[in-house]
Amino acid sequence: MRKCTLLLLSMGLIFAAQAQSSFSRNFTYFEAGGNGLFGSFNYERQFSKKPGFGMRAGLGFYHEYDPALTIPIAINYLIPLKNEYQFLEGALGLTPVLTYERPQKNQVDIEIDHVFMPTFGFRKHTRNNYMWRINLGAFIATYDGYTLPYIGFSYGKRF
After folding, report:
1. What range defines the domain where residue 73 resides?
2. 130: closest CA among 16, 29, 56, 32?
């Protein structure tokens, strides 16, 4: 009986150690602010089994004068810190902004603008496969040339 208990306990410890050191490559998260402008829902995929280059894309919204749909797209890079659950993150993103107007009853005008968004931030993964991050960046409007700083906060699930 002791041998069976010892065997089960050691197998459990081995599996727990492997689970803690594994890196999840897929993420879904909601971002307030950030690349989606007001808010967005995003999917991210890391290209390798270790932290490094990845890509994210999502759907978001924005409303200043007219409602707008945003499509945040970015290439990012994760830099692991001493703790295996913490990372610095750098990203270069481009967000198409689709606005529409109804000048007449049977007419819809759609305008597409682009915003370039470089970001830098901190990301934390939890043992329960959740993640949160905070990032700072610059909102660089390609259509009229102005630049504004911004902040984004994300929370989501790793899988």
Report:
1. 2-158
2. 29
For the segment 45-94, what is each residue's pLDDT rounded down to a tens digit?
999 999 999 999 999 998 877 789 999 999 999 999 998 899 999 999 99
pLDDT at 9 over 60: no
Q: What length does the chain have?
A: 159
Q: What is the 3-state secondary structure (H, E, C) of 104-135?
A: ECCEEEEEEEEEEEEEEEEEEECCCCEEEEEE
CATH code for position 63:
2.40.160.20
Domain count, the chain: 1
The CA distance from 70 to 108, in Å, is 18
Summarize pLDDT for 114-129 with one digit per residue, the tens: 999 999 999 999 989 9
Residue 134 Cα to chain centre, angstroms: 10
Burial of 81 (0-12, 13-18, 19+ CB in 10 A): middle
Are the C-beta atoms of 66 and 100 separated by less than 8 Å?
yes
pLDDT band at 145 (very low <50, low <70, confident <90, very high): confident
